[in-house]
Amino acid sequence: MFTRTTIPVDDVSLLMDVADAFKHHRPDRKSATVDVSFAITTSYGGYGDLRYGEGKYGGAEQIIVTRITGERRALSSILQNVFDAWMDYLKQPLPPISHY
Questions:
Q1: Is 100 a domain residue?
Q2: Of 16, 35, 56, 85, which has the most beta carbons under 10 Å away?
């Protein structure tokens, strides 16, 4: 779920695509949504650049993942959503977001 809302996201597979891009530079899976390691960059996210509620506020520098579709996502939010997915799968309580 996107930042603990009811909106489903595919961030577990997106994180796999990010890891593949770093490992192989160009993932060879047809289902990959990140096509090259250069799609993961350090950048400033401006207003309206990312989903509402995602990433750092105030235009701070952060790691941005750009999908083949052009959608831009903050890696910090992807990691948070994957962490939450694992905690939910393991039936563990979710700590407050500010604790990690």
A1: no
A2: 16
Structural domains in the chain (count):
1
CA dihedral defined by 2, 7, 12, 13, rounded to 10 degrees? -130
Please write the tens of the pLDDT for every residue from 37-62.
888 888 776 666 676 667 666 667 88
Q: What pTM was computed for the model?
A: 0.77
Q: How far is CA 85 from CA 27, 36, 78, 93, in A?
A: 24, 25, 11, 11
Domain that holds residue 19: 2-92
Upper half-sphere CA count for residue 33 (Cβ side, 13 Å): 15
Distances (CA, A) of 28 to 37, 64, 79, 91: 12, 21, 23, 34
Token pair for 29: 């899976």
Q: Read off φ and ψ for residue 29, nearest 5 degrees.
A: -75, 135
